[in-house]
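Input.
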Amino acid sequence: MKFQRLHDLREDSDLSQKQIGEIIHVSQRAYSHYERGSRCIPVEILVRLADYYDTSIDYLVGRTDKKKRI
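Output.
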């Protein structure tokens, strides 16, 4: 499963994969795998991403279209 929203949020924030990797404490290579969907994203990483982008995990994985957390 490709995570297009991760890609879009990252680009909207003008961040490289390396930069977001540093923010969430993973390598650029690991983050690239997560974004492409070639590696499962650990829950703790999803939480870090949701917190950083101020959104929900459901939004990140495509379960809702509501971008902002309630």
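The chain has a mean pLDDT of 94.
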